Amino acid sequence: MSMNRNGRNIAVPSVSSRVATVVLLESRLLSRSVTNWVLTAGVLSLVVGPIWRVLGSDIGSERVTPFLVLESGQSATARYWLETADLLVLLLPLIAFLYGYEAFPKERERGTLFILGSAPLTRRDVLIAKVAARVAWLAAAIGLGVLLSGIGLILLVGGFDPVGHLLAGLITIIFAGGLLTVGSSLSVYCSTRWACLTGIVFGYLGLEFAGALLLSRVSSLVVIHPFQAYVTLIAAPFDTMYPSLTASLSDGSVTEYSFGPFFTPSLALPVLVGWICGPVVLGHRRFRREVIGA
């Protein structure tokens, strides 16, 4: 409660209600965006599409990708998630960045950020709500894709592992949320959408190049890369799947690089959480100093 000039008590909305209001408003705006629907269709195709790769493959045979290894005798669900993770590591970062890059530059250009700044909201409320709305939208798209792919595996393939499938889907949502948070939070630093889009393209290429470089050089720094954290977590629900770097480190010829024990879910999860929290903190530090409407 607070008092106005007449000494009367006025109910002040709680933080959760303020954030929820902006989340609902932002969600409505996202639902009217053609670009957002195109990106959603892209996410669905990335999550559902690998079913056809599973149908046309020899399930049970060994499969090796740049980040993951699948031993022979695996289930159809494990094979599906190997193929899905292989695609997501390559393309999901770009889609997630594009989901979030307009969070602030677009409203600056249109002047609507000034309206939010004049409302009874803190800068933290606005930042968290904008990021949360986009993460919720992307999570819903991935969740729908996981549901459809699960139905497809049951009807078309068989050998469905519901627990592993749902856990892998949840891990993918966390991974996507971390990537989207980077795009949304750091868009605070961009004055225009074109500047932000340019930064996203270079950021995406840098993330992909850094992942490939660290993996090829068997660098210990790869443990803090979001790709390695994701594949470490995605392999955990399946007995026949493990990160490819762990396999190379077990080779006697590279024992000097044996930091394989560090590639565990107990480390990978905090890494992904860090990729979510870090950009939010940086974005908030910049946003709270911005003069809205100037």
TrEMBL record:
GO molecular function: ABC-type transporter activity
Gene Ontology CC annotation, any one: plasma membrane
Transmembrane segments: 34-55, 80-101, 131-157, 163-182, 194-215, 262-282
Signal peptide start-end: none
One Pfam family, short name: ABC2_membrane_2
Alphabetically ordered keywords of this record: Membrane, Transmembrane, Transmembrane helix
Protein name (Swiss-Prot/TrEMBL): ABC transporter permease
Species: Natrinema ejinorense
